[in-house]
């Protein structure tokens, strides 16, 4: 038996949605499930016990950031990620003192520092990057025309925003102090072994969806080679194999044929689970996702990386995805926007200045620790007027409450989807939510 065990409890009729349980060394994750993102071993502004009250069963931290600060050895010496951040997880199905955790490979952060999705991408000549060494090239510089990506020309000379890709790995500068660092598949796995999460991901190349087909294929094939190296490094560590599960990542951009090919290749390698990575546009997410999922083994858990838009989460569940993570809920909250059943609203807007309606419209789900089987949302006592005041005033409490509200909304949405799958009415649940949420 591996580090985790996945059991499918129920499948929804008419689509690929399924409800299951992932048993980890630190407790159960009831799927579909959403993992709040604690980038630096902290979900910004929210205590671990508050995450439990909101309904979280697992949290995800970032390898890139923890490697740079405080360093993976500090986390290891503290007893691993969960103990370091005092994450005890949900009492529901708990089997250990600390709760289930995940870490990403650091690939997305390294590549996004360079590619800067949504900003102008500039390609520089070798003379512009002579200080960045690529060991696989004859002259010490990468030969790929896609090897160097920067935010844009105005900030090209700034530290922390350069990444050079070669077949062996990635050289990049820290966003903290501009120092030069290097990630390879082996190094990423080594760092994640030290962080000690129950589930972690193979190092991959995450491309922008705007990259041409030829480069999407090049990056996908490189991801496959890195996947084999990641898996080999993990399997050679007998102790880590007993305690940690490694997920491979499917790439291929927006192209259905590449997604299908990548899913087949990653599936054959023998990972403990599968992640769907990369970036999608709305119009091609469904096709690319469906193409990939059709090739994945039914018995393995699947994680849709970085997906947090409510409609996209439900789309992912309908296509058979089991796990999700995204920073959007807390990031939106910190900037004054909250989810409601009728869509996103911006509490700093003037119309909420004297709006005394309750903040919370979330459905409350079963909490086994409460006497009557239900718990009230811990953000339900606040009004929109009060929140507007806090956010306009720059009070920390406003960002915290809004972040908690948004996490509650997403966690409830996913918990509701799980209940609907078990009850056999997922399609109706999804249609009702989408009709209301996107009615504006």
Q: In summary, what is this structure?
A:
37% of the residues lie in helices and 16% in strands.
Polypeptide structure, described:
This protein has 440 residues and is of the alpha/beta class. It has three domains: 5-101 and 184-327, Queuine tRNA-ribosyltransferase-like (TIM Barrel, Alpha-Beta Barrel); 104-183, no CATH class; 331-437, no CATH class. Helices cover 37% and strands 16% of the residues. The protein contains 15 helices and 17 strands. It has helices at residues 48-54, 63-68, 72-77, 81-84, 107-115, 185-195, 213-235, 238-243, 256-268, 282-293, 310-318, 328-334, 384-393, 396-423, 426-437, and strands at residues 5-11, 18-24, 27-31, 33-36, 59-61, 101-103, 148-150, 162-165, 170-173, 180-183, 199-201, 245-250, 273-276, 302-304, 323-326, 337-340, 343-346. Strands 4-15-14-13-12-11-6-5 form an eight-stranded parallel β-sheet. It has a four-stranded antiparallel β-sheet with strand order 7-8-9-10. Strands 1-2-3 form a three-stranded antiparallel β-sheet. A hairpin with a 4-residue loop joins strand 8 and strand 9. Helix 14 runs antiparallel to helix 15. The longest helix has 28 residues, at 396-423.
Q: How many strands appear in the DSSP assignment? A: 17
Cα-based radius of gyration, to the nearest Å: 21 Å
**Counting H and I runs of at least 4 residues, what is the number of helices?**
15
Proportion of helical residues: 25-40%
Question: CATH fold name of the largest domain, please?
Answer: TIM Barrel
How many domains make up the coordinates? 3
What is the CATH homology-level superfamily of the largest domain?
A: Queuine tRNA-ribosyltransferase-like
Could you say what the CATH architecture of the largest domain is? Alpha-Beta Barrel
Question: Roughly how many Å apart are the termini?
Answer: 49 Å
- Give the helix/strand class: alpha/beta
